[in-house]
């Protein structure tokens, strides 16, 4: 799993072709083995990103299904529980959508995501389902959800009432609107001497490529300034980019950061 661990166990159980399985009829332990994480460790960015987490919570907001890619596995549904932001990917997103379609009047939704992956982008933590490994429970009749419902019944916070979640409208714009409507279209000559900081779409013709000049730089994913790899360090890759770099921008909130390549243009 590329350094990502699902449990804190260091041992593995391997099944071979002649392994014999026998059903246990008097098992007294927990059925699912949840290990719910303390939300404060997510909010404070202290929980490690390379270890799977289990979360449980009351859904307070649900976004729109985002289908920017033809691959269903990359379709995403964002939901928010009381203390965490969650992305449901692929089949998990559609499982939640089917539940909403089939239960339009059920406004109290308790979810459990087991074996989820925590990601941090620009100091914002998000819990993500992890490929087909994660498990999603939605108002399932199991002890953990039933106990959580009883806790909510004694909770006097406004978002603990029967009417719990709101629908979040997507703030994404189409590619056409992003390029042609959202920002002004300028030529390079128009912005040679800008009088104030602004954002434009630049239109121009590539006349040549200087092969002996740098054409990109490695930018800090937190502030977009150039980041530097410490001497002797080796590149490591995670879901967000290359890790192990240092950002020396005094206004950046991260010293250790990940980087992504950004293009350099000259006029």
Automatic annotation (TrEMBL):
Give the superkingdom in one word: Eukaryota
- Enumerate the SUPFAM superfamilies for this protein: Nucleic acid-binding proteins
Q: What CDD domains is this protein classified in?
A: RPA1_DBD_B_like
Q: What is this protein called?
A: Replication factor A C-terminal domain-containing protein
**Organism lineage:** Eukaryota, Viridiplantae, Streptophyta, Embryophyta, Tracheophyta
């Amino acid at each position: 799993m590329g350094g990502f661990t699902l449990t804190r166990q260091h041992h593995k159980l391997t099944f071979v072709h002649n392994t014999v399985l026998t059903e246990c009829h008097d098992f007294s332990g927990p059925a699912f083995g949840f290990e719910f994480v303390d939300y404060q460790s997510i909010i404070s960015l202290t929980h490690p990103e390379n270890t799977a987490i289990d979360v449980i919570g009351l859904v307070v907001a649900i976004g729109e299904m985002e289908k920017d890619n033809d691959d269903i596995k990359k379709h995403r549904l964002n939901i928010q529980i009381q203390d965490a932001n969650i992305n449901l990917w692929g089949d998990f997103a559609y499982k939640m959508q089917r539940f909403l379609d089939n239960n339009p009047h059920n406004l109290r939704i308790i979810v459990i995501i087991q074996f989820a992956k925590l990601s941090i982008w620009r100091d914002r933590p998000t819990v993500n389902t992890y490929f087909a490994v994660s498990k999603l429970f939605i108002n399932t009749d199991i002890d953990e959800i039933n106990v959580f419902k009883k806790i909510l019944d004694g909770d006097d916070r406004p978002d603990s009432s029967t009417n719990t979640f709101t629908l979040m409208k997507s703030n994404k714009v189409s590619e056409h609107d992003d390029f042609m409507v959202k920002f002004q279209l300028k030529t390079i000559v128009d912005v040679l001497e800008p009088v104030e900081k602004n954002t434009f779409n630049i239109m121009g013709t590539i006349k040549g490529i200087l092969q002996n000049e740098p054409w990109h730089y490695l930018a800090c994913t937190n502030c977009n300034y150039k980041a530097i790899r410490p001497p002797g360090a080796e590149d490591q890759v995670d879901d967000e980019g290359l890790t192990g770099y240092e950002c020396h921008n005094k206004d950046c909130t991260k010293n250790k950061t990940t980087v992504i390549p950004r293009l350099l243009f000259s006029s």
